[in-house]
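S.,

Sequence below, as promised.
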Amino acid sequence: MSQSPADDAIVSHFTSVPSPPRSSPDTGRNPFFRAPGDRRGQDSASTVVDSPASHVAVLDRHGVIVAVNPAWEQFSREHFNHGMARLVPGMSYIEACHAVAAENPEMREALDGLESVLKGESPQFTLEYSWRLPDTERWFLLTATSLAGSASGAVVSHADITPQRAAAESLRHTEQQFQLVMSASGTGFWDWNLKTDAIYFSPIWKRQLGYADAELKNCFETWESRFHPEDRDAAMRHLLVYLAKPWPGFEIEFRLRHRDGSYRWFLCRAASLEDEHGDPYRMLGVHLDITDHKNTEARTHQNEARLRAIVDTASDAVITADGSGRIISWNPAAARIFGHSEAEAVGQPLSLIMPERFHEMHPRVFQQAVATGECRILGRPLELTARRKDGTEFPIELTLGQWKTPQTVFFTAVIRDITERVRADQKLRILSRAIEHSPANVVITNADGLIEYVNPKFTEITGYTSEEVLGKNPRILNSGQVPSEVYRALWATITGGHEWQGEILNRRKDGALFLEFASISPVFDDAGRITHFVSVNEDITARKDAERLLEESEARFRTLVENIPVGLFRSLPGPEGRLLMVNAALARLFGFASTEDMLAHCAADFYENREDRKRFSDALLKLSHIEGVELRLKRQDGQPFWGRLNARVMRDAAGKILHFDGTIEDITMRKQFEEERNRMEIQLRHAQKLESIGQLAAGIAHEINTPTQFIGDNMRFLRDAFGEVQKLVTHYGALLEAARRNAITPELLAENDAARQAADLDYLQAEIPSALDQSLEGVGRVTKIVRAMKDFSHPGAEEKSLADLNKAIESTLTVCRNEWKYVAEVVTEFDPALPSVPCVVSEFNQVILNLVINAAHAIADVIGKDSGAKGRITVTTKHDGDWVEIRVQDTGAGIPESVRHRIFTPFFTTKGVGKGTGQGLAIARGVVVERHGGSIHFETETGRGTSFIIRLPIHPASSPTDETNS
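The prediction came back faster than expected:
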């Protein structure tokens, strides 16, 4: 229906209902009170007619419905169909209410209120009522608001508040439960309105302070005035900070004064409610009396402090670990004992203090103890091995305890470093074993001189068992041959607190006499009183006999020294070497009439080069023993001679150097013989080398002659070819000249063609390059042979120098190629990383030459020289640590077992008459072993061949003789 101007006025008036004013309470006492902000503006009081939550109808002053919203129409259709006319515009709302009031007395109150609004007696009326339907009951809020002016009509609104009623009922039930919980838990509750400053303290809150509900006012001053002086300012600051910017979970602890004058501890927890602007307007909280807890906590802290003081001052390490085996506490003693600071240890596994060999086993054992609750070592002291930070291991005594919490289990270990105790125990055991196994007999008596202990040696020496002598006086050993004055002096000395030493002749159980050297000492207690006497006795009967024999032996030795033909000396270490003793033979060797005359000199006076004495002394101090040092010495008159020295460093029992003892021999004649022998050996090696070169000369000539021959043939071919080419060039010149004159004739062309055909130019172009290549290859072969001969002979190199052995062997194989090429294939297997070796190259080449030629002859003896078959010679080099190894292997018949022991004997040969001198292998051995400090041996198998193995040192070691002669 269309809306009239009157309806517009009604709706306009209906939607302009002002909000009620806010109150402004007094804020003078409460510093936390906040007055409402000065925010002006109107609260929305508009009624949304189309809202589905409220059923709205506009009534005229007679109570007739003028307009309704859709929600009203929907509600009317659903609920006013029980014989009642539906409430639609034009119907009388008042009459409908009278009809309902007849059945529902609650509507009587609604009807009276509505009529008072329509009559202008009241501006507004509200009422909550229930509406019962067949299957449910709903609650509505009836609101009747007068339109502008009295008796001008009203707006009626029915809002369904069933959910709100249900929520309110639930809230009421929750509040009842809350009160019951608070009462049962003894928790005080407070509610503070920050806008009005109204505050509520629950009866339990007051009872916590010893008051009845009516005895304390519900005001801020009640709380503030009961603070402990030490807590008030901190609590107020905490509250101010919170109200300025609230955070979840306000919590603080403080003390409040109880009625009896004491102070009790409270835990206050609170939360605030905020308005739409984020300002707190209400704060609710609880008080928990935690006095008992704080007292318990204080006692706990005292106990913990006391325990910490004990743990921190304990001399033993106290370490606690959790159920995972991680260290959680570490006292100063642990840091001192293990070397790890507390910061380094806490959080680390217990394996931190264990030797590494236990690291893998410990976690399994620990986890099993935690899982099963069984730990057999709890409460029992154990001796174990631990590890310090620096990795050193040491013995400990560990006592383990276990304690639990609901969450996990903990282990606390008290650890004592027992290094000193173990040492003391070990020392005691050692001393005990030393006494038990001592070569001296030990007797311990009490202060009265009665025997309490004898060791096994006593029984062995005297024949008495311990059972036979315990409780008796040592005089049972008295031989009767020691003057009584000796015993009286002995007893006076030891009872006076001093040690007595001396020789005593005693008697064994079997009556035999024996001589003892006795050392008897008193033992004192802490008060200085003598409690025991310890007698350590050595049977010196045999020693006395030995001393007598030694004196006789020394007399014989002196006679021997004076008469031995070898020079003997004793000198002090050092560059000069003062002489302490020389025998007559040494004095005669150096031209002295007596040993006393020679002792007036020092050892350095008899060295041709005094620096040799210093080098000899230094070498002897370094090696402690030297044999066969050959030096140039000189006699008293200055005449030089060769001497051979043997010497040894002599030390005392503590290892301190006393002197040098040694011998000197005159080896001048032997040196002259050796020099002569060396000259002969050098001549022999040169002769053998010349012999080898002579044997190789024909083969080398043949090797050189072959390339020389085809070089000559190629040169002659090139000479003839050049003549033919020169003729052809002449004809080509004539043709070129005719071409310049433009006078080429058929005859001239025919002559050139004939010349070209006669020269056979195509053949020359193909063969001349080949002839040149062959000639250059021949020159190369000749050069290689000549260079190999030069390398092989290596003239002028009689001293050792670093040599490439692979290259030396390759040159030797080239030189002797004519010796092996008809009977064998040579295979080389060289180590490419073979280091250079110090050697005399020419001598090394001679050794390889001898071995390769011998291998070729051995193969030829098997296959025959003209059979056309070939054996194999394999030459191998290898680096083996500080050595190089050269192996020459052949496929010959092998060496007969009957002659193998004579292979390196000079002048021995297995070849036929005229085929060998028997010097090759002997010279090879001399070169390898004597000249180069290496070794040479062979491996052979009859019918399969022989391998000769040479080993040379990469770093030849100097002998003591070399050192002193250097």
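Confidence is low (pLDDT under 50) at residues 1-28, 35-50, 958-966.

Coffee later?
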